[in-house]
């Protein structure tokens, strides 16, 4: 029962070194970084369609920006510098405006009306602000000193032609679109969107809005994971809920592999009787149980199903979100062609006390109030309300520690994870 065609991923891409009991978070991340690569094709897209896309190649400036020296203000231009003191200059006929150049050469000792963004005509090196000038008939009066080049922008001072403005792997922001446009790029090569299949497993799960019988709970993970994928810039593929039944799960995995580039499951990823995700992957010979030294988060089941990477997340919503943010997010980013990025955290004083044993990293649901980091009252892994209460996570290192109020702790806002 193989049928596993790994390219571009290696069949053993999730294999862990033998004999390792618990893998530190950073080691696990290094392995994902080293062994995964982009799996999506490339297409040319208009800038107007490019927001949120991932650059497939370095973007190179077709033209310098600004393309020529120009005026930074509305005012009057002339040659050279002027010393301290009062000056009067005769005004030249005509003007230079943005997009409407002055057709001629300005003689030394004369001034010309120039507007913001106007290309500096030959003979203009310096511009004086119109607010600093008294306008007479056919002449202007003002006070020096003024350095040569004052109130002007040099050609190429922002970007030089041929420079790499954005690297391959960049997910484009609105500001990036401005930059690409400013250097003449109207079309860019982007990665096709990564399709991520999401399915929930468990006999106890019911769709929210439906009637739930005794022992049943509503599927909270699927709406969370589908929207998370959307926020991260990928295309979510909803494969619904699957009962704890191996045949149905196998059929759903087959569908997922056909319709998506990555498969995210929640629940059934441990080694228990009803942990069918791990059992199925193991039976297919493509399963690795990653025991990551991380709280919250039980073992993560990683594998390939028909060549498509599967992330078997824990069922507990808190663990599912933390494992998604810490592992699935960077892994999906690499598969989507994005460059590796570490979520930006901030060291802020703790508003809580906590003791922790060595050996695993912890993430607490947290938010910042009055400059201090608060953590959710309960560390219970089933407390969905705490996920929503929180505005980020506090990362507590792998070593033992005793955090007291006022000690610096690392707060990572949800926004740093791309939420
Ligand atoms: P499991 O990993 O399947 O053993 O599930 C661990 C815990 O998470 C159990 O209490 C499950 O009922 C719960 N759980 C699993 N999947 C979901 C889900 N999609 N939404 C909410 N809770 C879930
Ligand atoms: Mg289950």
TrEMBL record:
Pathway listed for it is: Cofactor biosynthesis; molybdopterin biosynthesis
For this protein, what reaction is catalysed?
adenylyl-molybdopterin + molybdate = Mo-molybdopterin + AMP + H(+)
First-level EC class = transferase
Enumerate the UniProt keywords alphabetically.
Magnesium, Metal-binding, Molybdenum, Molybdenum cofactor biosynthesis, Transferase
Any one GO molecular-function label of the UniProt entry: molybdopterin molybdotransferase activity
Q: Name one GO biological process term.
A: Mo-molybdopterin cofactor biosynthetic process
Q: Name one Pfam family in it.
A: MoCF_biosynth
Q: Which PANTHER family match?
A: GEPHYRIN, MOLYBDOPTERIN BIOSYNTHESIS PROTEIN
Job description of the protein: Catalyzes the insertion of molybdate into adenylated molybdopterin with the concomitant release of AMP.
Name-wise, this protein is Molybdopterin molybdenumtransferase
């Amino acid at each position: 029962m193989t049928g596993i065609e790994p390219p571009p991923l290696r069949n053993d891409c999730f294999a862990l070194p033998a004999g390792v009991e618990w893998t530190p978070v950073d080691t696990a991340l290094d392995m994902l970084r080293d062994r995964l690569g982009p799996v999506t094709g490339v297409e040319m897209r208009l800038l107007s369609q490019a927001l949120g896309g991932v650059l497939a190649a370095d973007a190179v400036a077709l033209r310098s920006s600004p393309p020529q020296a120009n005026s930074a203000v509305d005012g009057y231009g002339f040659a050279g510098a002027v010393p301290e003191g009062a000056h009067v200059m005769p005004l030249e006929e005509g003007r230079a405006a943005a997009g409407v150049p002055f057709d001629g050469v300005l003689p030394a000792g004369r001034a010309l009306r120039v507007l913001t963004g106007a290309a500096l005509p030959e003979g203009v090196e310096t511009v004086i602000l119109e607010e600093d000038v008294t306008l007479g008939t056919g002449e202007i009066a003002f006070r020096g000193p003024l350095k040569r080049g004052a109130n002007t922008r040099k050609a190429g001072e922002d970007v030089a032609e041929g420079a790499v403005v954005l690297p391959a792997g960049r997910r484009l922001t609105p500001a990036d679109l401005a930059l690409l446009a400013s250097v003449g790029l109207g079309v860019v090569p982007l990665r096709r969107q990564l399709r991520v299949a999401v399915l929930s497993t468990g006999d106890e799960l019911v769709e929210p809005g439906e009637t739930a019988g005794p022992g049943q709970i509503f599927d909270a993970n699927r709406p969370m994971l589908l929207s998370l994928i959307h926020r991260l810039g990928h295309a979510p593929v909803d494969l619904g809920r699957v009962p704890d039944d191996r045949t149905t799960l196998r059929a759903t995995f087959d569908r997922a592999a056909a319709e998506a580039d990555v498969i995210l499951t929640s629940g059934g990823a441990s080694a228990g009787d009803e942990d069918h995700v791990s059992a199925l992957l193991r039976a297919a010979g493509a399963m690795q149980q990653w025991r990551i030294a991380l709280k919250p988060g039980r073992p993560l089941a990683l594998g390939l199903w028909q060549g498509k990477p599967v992330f078997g997340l824990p069922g507990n919503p808190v663990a599912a979100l933390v494992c998604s943010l810490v592992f699935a997010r960077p892994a999906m980013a690499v598969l989507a062609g994005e460059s590796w990025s570490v979520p930006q955290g901030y060291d802020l004083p703790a508003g809580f006390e906590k003791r922790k044993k060595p050996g695993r990293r912890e993430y607490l649901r947290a938010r910042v109030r009055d400059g201090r980091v608060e953590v959710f009252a309960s560390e219970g892994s089933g407390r969905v309300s705490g996920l929503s209460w929180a505005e980020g996570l506090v990362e507590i290192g792998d070593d033992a520690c005793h955090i007291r109020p006022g000690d610096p702790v690392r707060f990572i806002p949800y926004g740093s994870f791309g939420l």
